[in-house]
Amino acid sequence: MQLEKDKSVLERFLHAFCFEVLAIGISAPLAAWISGESMVDMGVVTVVIAVMALLWNMVYNIFFDRLLKKFGWVKNTFMRCMHAAGFEFGLLVMAIPFIAWWLDMGLVEALILDVGLVLFYLPYTYVYNLIYDRLRARYWGRLAAA
Q1: Residue 96 and which of 54, 112, 128, 137 are 20 to 30 A apart at CA?
Q2: C-alpha span between 116 and 54 (Å, rounded)
Q3: Distance of alpha carbon 33 from alpha carbon 27, whole angstroms
């Protein structure tokens, strides 16, 4: 696999922004339904976590891409799983205190709720990035290289 052209800050932002908008649209209603929390509370939780994730996504992906390049790793299934797991673990550490505070629950309950969100986000992250990378390589990645 050929090394892809570096992503601009704008492309990284759009990648992360589209990821979060689609994720909120799916996860907020699902989380409200499963948890029994109000749609408003789960909407706030998912939007705040999305903002955290947007910023974390940009930072995390810069470092992950640098590791790929430095060690000559390719984005195979194993690397994609490591990417998704590392991203979600970092976000989990940031999100649990907020969830506990906003929903007025203990850290264990917030952890359980966040683990439920992670069970949605892990496969979602994998699939979203796989589709994004394929579309980028086929369409706008060629434009950036030209």
Answers
A1: 128
A2: 19
A3: 10
Task: Look at residue 22 in the predicted model and tell me its pLDDT.
Answer: 92
- Residues 30-66 pLDDT 10s: 989 988 899 999 999 999 998 898 889 889 999 999 9
- Taking the CA atoms of 64, 67, 72 and 77 in sequence, report the sign of the dihedral they define: negative
- Alpha-carbon Rg for the chain, nearest whole angstrom, is 16
Q: At what angle do helices 107-135 and 9-35 cross, to 10 degrees?
A: 140
Between CA 58 and CA 61 the distance in angstroms is 5
Residue 132 DSSP label? H
Distance, CA of 53 to CA of 122 (rounded, Å): 13
Q: DSSP 3-state assignment of 105?
A: coil
73, containing H or E segment? none
Is pTM, for the whole model, over 0.90?
no
CA-to-CA distance for 31 and 39, rounded, in angstroms? 8
128-135 long-range contacts, Cβ below 8 Å, gap at least 24? 128/19, 128/22, 128/23, 129/80, 129/83, 129/84, 130/80, 132/15, 132/19, 133/75
